[in-house]
From TrEMBL:
<keyword id="KW-0223">Dioxygenase</keyword>
<feature type="domain" description="Fe2OG dioxygenase">
    <location>
        <begin position="111"/>
        <end position="212"/>
    </location>
</feature>
<keyword id="KW-0408">Iron</keyword>
<dbReference type="InterPro" id="IPR005123">
    <property type="entry name" value="Oxoglu/Fe-dep_dioxygenase_dom"/>
</dbReference>
<keyword id="KW-0479">Metal-binding</keyword>
<keyword id="KW-0560">Oxidoreductase</keyword>
<dbReference type="Pfam" id="PF13532">
    <property type="entry name" value="2OG-FeII_Oxy_2"/>
</dbReference>
<protein>
    <submittedName>
        <fullName>DNA oxidative demethylase AlkB</fullName>
        <ecNumber>1.14.11.33</ecNumber>
    </submittedName>
</protein>
<dbReference type="InterPro" id="IPR004574">
    <property type="entry name" value="Alkb"/>
</dbReference>
<dbReference type="InterPro" id="IPR037151">
    <property type="entry name" value="AlkB-like_sf"/>
</dbReference>
<dbReference type="InterPro" id="IPR027450">
    <property type="entry name" value="AlkB-like"/>
</dbReference>
<dbReference type="GO" id="GO:0035516">
    <property type="term" value="F:broad specificity oxidative DNA demethylase activity"/>
</dbReference>
Length: 224
């Protein structure tokens, strides 16, 4: 493993199917951030309204065939950006490539994302406990990449009331969430003020998702 993936600081199984690849994206962070900048020029960060009437603390945009949106009518994936009426910016090859390599390092072959969701957290912003269930298939894993300021990730269980573990996620960390962990509750504690990391005074999280395709890859996942 060390020979194949020298970029991984440590591999930690958080729970069955959830694998933390410490520092996996660190060496690529600057090009990933340049791609985020280019995406946000075409599809600007915005703060979606929640179904409950609130506003999300994290700014969001997306790339690839699908973007995730919320507007008070509910949460869903759309093939066009409601802000511009245009298709979402194309998924940069380095995004899809990195997500595929991370999934492979965690034991999944054939991960090809259809959505690259980009979340931006200013200091003080967090994300409440939730499940990701808007994808038509829960078979494929989700790959997430943390950039910039560190976060305390809240890792719950299958039920909202399950106890939460606090997992620090740092610049360059990648987590692959698959199998039974795919439907666990999770959230992000408000980002704490800290010296800039890689020139960033905020945190970005990229999440890569399969939205409406059956997952034909291999690895720990729910059967058809
Ligand atoms: C576990 N984002 O966008 S990434 C989200 O840091 C989201 O921006 C957080 O939760 C963030 O939905 C957490 C980690 C993550 C993402 C998706 C998951 C964990 C997951 C889907 C299923 C299980
Ligand atoms: Fe989520």
């Amino acid at each position: 493993m060390d020979d194949l993936f020298p970029e991984t600081r440590e591999q930690l199984v958080l729970s069955p199917g959830a694998v933390l690849l410490g520092g996996f994206a660190r060496a690529e962070a600057q090009v990933l951030l340049q791609a985020v900048e280019s995406i946000s020029q075409k599809a600007p960060f915005r703060h979606y309204r929640t179904a409950g009437g609130g506003v999300m603390a994290a700014g969001m945009t997306a790339c690839g065939p699908y973007g995730w949106v919320s507007d008070g009518q509910g949460y869903r994936y759309m093939q066009t950006d409601p802000l511009t009426g245009q298709p979402w910016p194309a998924m940069p090859a380095l995004f899809a490539d990195m997500a595929g390599r991370a999934a492979r390092a965690a034991g999944y072959e054939g991960f090809v994302p259809q959505c690259g969701l980009v979340n931006r957290y200013a200091v003080g912003a967090g994300m409440g406990l939730h499940q990701d269930r808007d994808e038509r298939t829960m078979q494929a894993p989700v790959v997430s990449v943390s950039l910039g300021l560190s976060a305390l990730f809240l890792w719950g269980g299958a039920l909202r009331g399950s106890p939460c573990r606090k997992v620090p996620l740092h610049h360059g960390d990648v987590v692959v969430w698959g199998g039974p962990s795919r439907c666990h509750f999770h959230g992000v504690a408000p980002i704490r003020a800290a010296p800039a990391v890689a020139g960033l005074d905020c945190r970005y999280n990229l999440t890569f998702r399969v939205v409406d395709r059956p997952f034909s890859g291999t690895g720990l996942h729910y059967p058809d």
